[in-house]
Predict the structure.
Amino acid sequence: MNLPKRHHYVPEMLQKNFIDDEAKLWTFDSRNSAKGVWWSSHENLFLEGHHYSHINTDGTKDPTLEIWFSELEGEAAPVVQKIIAAARRGRCPNLTKNERQTWDFFFYQQWRRVPDLFASLMTAEQHRDEVERLIDELERSGRRLSNQERSNLLDPTTLKRMRSNVRVASLKTGNENVLAVIGARGLVVGRIDNLRKSFVLGSRPVVKLTLPGLTDLSDTRVEAWLPIASDVIVGVGLYDRAEILVPFNTKQTRNQNEATSKQSSQIIGRSKALVESLAPYVGTKVQFKPVVTLGTVGD
């Protein structure tokens, strides 16, 4: 059995909705800024080898989570296309109950599954500090570790495996409260009103917009948006409207693109000029420190 090795943390089925007329994508990666803006394909962007695999102590890998995400993407793909098609006709998608539940779950998972978010929650250095703290706590409880045992636990290869497994384990669990809030709020679909403009997609694609001191997603003044095509974006809406369609003007589109770029280490888009104009913003607000996780509604 050939196990999947190339794990896309932003699905190809989303990336394909941002390709140019030659089926390519323009991209900029702040971690390799010297390369500038370059042309690539959705097969080779927003992916890491075995990103969702649990790594066993013998080095073997269990890709169960990647397979599960692939199945979710397969279920979500027709819902995404239904939303896009309706928006381009100037209509709400009129999702069924099952389609809406699929969308909500896909949106929630896409929010939390990307490396940029996890890196902001726990850097490699912070993980090592936490392991050392737990070792010290274990020894204080009476279990003395030999120098070799301590060395083995703090070996860089071991730490990398443990940190990866923490990420995978966290993604296997969810928070029903967050999903309940997303489901309770309506769906808002945005369509760019200037066909010469377009959205970019980021390595951390869900953008949460808040007012100072206000982060609770149950408050309708808190917004969360995910671009699903170069001209269509979807967010959490109002409690008293199941679905609404709104226009995105040039300023709103630019603000969304800048917000995406700032929180993402990499962006892709159909326009070279657009990606070049956003390159100075990319990764400028990537925060590598603990923040409130998606385990609460206030994330």
In short: The two ends are 39 Å apart (CA to CA).
